[in-house]
Amino acid sequence: MKTKLVLFIILLSLCTNLLAALSRDEEQEEEDPELTTCMHQCGQQQQYSKSDKRACVRSCERYHQMKKEREEEEGTTMENQNPYVFDNEDFRTRLETQDGRVRVLNKFSRRSKLIKSISNYILVTMEAKGHTFTSPTYFDSDAVIFVLKGRAVIGLVREDKTDRFNLEDGDMMRVAAGTVVYFVNKNEN
């Protein structure tokens, strides 16, 4: 029950952030800085006559419209695939040894406009054989650790002490930015 509540709170938080980011994206679409700059430069050209300035502004608007159509076209081809389903090809292996591997999901924003608002997030998977220890690693951003299968000990190394947490299937834990972390797989296999 506790795990379901935590998962619900995290999902609610992600949805709230997604909606806020989508509304920011819509506001940014209305005020394209590239178009604004182009139109401003047309108005600042002293050697242009009024008709030249109008032609320059129309040229800016045509360019902006073509760019917007191209982006929408690219977005529809990306959205033809389900943007929430990822295959093995979508992951890059960052580290692989005989004891396990670490894989990173390619940028979310390449999949769909719907996911662009969470482009600052990454998904990392770690698979490790039984009794595997990972050397301490510095996390420079917040992380959420979720144990999909197995049992793990997560160690948070601080200046004066090390906190150890035992996690099992379905457990979730937040790690703050600036923390040194190590993992131990406690399973036999």
UniProtKB/TrEMBL annotation:
Signal peptide segment: 1-20
CDD domains, sorted: cupin_7S_vicilin-like_N (cd02244)
Keyword Transcription set for record: no
Domain of life the protein comes from: Eukaryota
Entries under InterPro entries matching the protein: Cupin_1, RmlC-like_jellyroll, RmlC_Cupin_sf, Seed_Storage-Functional
Domain Cupin type-1: 132-187
One Pfam assignment: Cupin_1
Keywords carried by this UniProt record: Signal
Protein name: Cupin type-1 domain-containing protein
UniProt lineage: Eukaryota, Viridiplantae, Streptophyta, Embryophyta, Tracheophyta
